[in-house]
Structures
1.
Amino acid sequence: MTREYSRFLRIFTICSAIFLVVCSYAAASGAEKQEVTAAGIIKKQGITSYMYGTHVLTDDKGKTLYALRSRIDLDKYISRKVIVKGYLVTGYPTDSGPDYLNVRSVKPGQRNEN
């Protein structure tokens, strides 16, 4: 074996290993996305022990179901009954907080009278 060929084999092996690691990570990351559809009332996030999310989705009694983040302007839906669809954010919940939902769509419902 020539020196150049030996070097080529080492570089090829290293590049192949890196490629496999990256592909495995990408496949695993995609598999972890869990789509969620949930109904409730959107409220502005206040000061909490967990401090993530800009808004929360609550049930009719005020219990927090999800902390929310979105590119959608959720302020338009404050105090409204809605159906949200999105994906759970990996690494949450933390500090006894709720699941963290990255909202992709909001379907408005009736205004909450409370």
2.
Amino acid sequence: MLNVIGLILDITGVMLLFVYGFPQPTHEEGVAMCLEDNTKLPDGRTVAEHDVEVRTTKSRYLVRSRLALGLVILGFGFQLWSTLNGLLGQRH
């Protein structure tokens, strides 16, 4: 049963990783044109509104990618536990 739980956690984690990717450091380079927070963008939002949305999305992706990686590790742990339990149980 532990193997089944481990496999379910693993596949769920892998699907989430496929969508949200692995947590990564930012490697941004270059110089951007400076705009004020109240500057209107072509879509009608201000730079400040755009920045809030970007930070929210980035935070959501980071949390979900870490959750996904945790599920894969936890699933591996359940499978390892089940296998070791089976091996140690055969010795008796």
3.
Amino acid sequence: MKVKFLAVLSLAAVAGVGACRSATNTNTTVLNTNTNTTITTMTPMATMTPMAATDTATQTTVQSALTKAGITGVTVDATTTNVTLRGTVASKEKMAQAVQVAQQAGRKAVNNELTVMNK
């Protein structure tokens, strides 16, 4: 049984290999041309992130509230979106107080860039 199977398998392999080879190869023309020779690439334009406008009314309000609370050495920058505190304060408690006063007076998000003075 094994011998018959191997004989049939061998004949099939020989027939398959023989059929693939012919005297004339009809697949000799290889066209490897690129028809997309005029590709135009668009360069994306840079988009500018709009900057928030300065809010002088909020800036004045927050600066006045800080002065009234006895907090000095703080610079206030206010935009239409947030309030930024910069400068040096005497302690961590004064820093926390400055942020709280700015939040209440400005009614906006507060960016705390304050530092505590080294004693």
